[in-house]
User: Which sequence fits this backbone?
């Protein structure tokens, strides 16, 4: 874990990377918050939908995703900046860096 950040922030940064990777794997680069909550649970982030929304809003603030409200649900779409981060072409502070693919 990086020195100087709390465990909670470390977990949030990891969750943001999991979200971006999940979006990047989709043909159209989109998933709704319900599916993203399930994806995060698969990777050990057992958090509320409100917590997931907070991470999505942070990713939007960082320019990694766009958000659209569909009824009461957010639909996230990965941006070019988000794709570049996942593919290790650039770095977005506030999101864990992906491991090199071997």
Assistant:
């Amino acid at each position: 874990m990086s020195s100087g950040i709390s465990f909670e922030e470390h977990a949030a940064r990891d969750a943001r990377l999991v979200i971006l990777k999940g979006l990047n794997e989709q043909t159209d680069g989109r998933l709704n918050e319900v599916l993203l909550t399930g994806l995060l649970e698969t990777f050990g982030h057992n958090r509320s939908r409100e917590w997931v929304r907070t991470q999505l809003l942070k990713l939007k603030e960082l320019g990694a995703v766009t958000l659209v409200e569909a009824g009461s649900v957010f639909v996230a779409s990965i941006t070019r900046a988000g794709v570049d981060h996942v593919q290790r072409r650039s770095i977005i502070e506030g999101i864990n860096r992906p491991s090199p693919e071997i």
About this structure: The radius of gyration is 13 Å. The chain has one domain: 7-86. The first helix runs from residue 7 to 24.
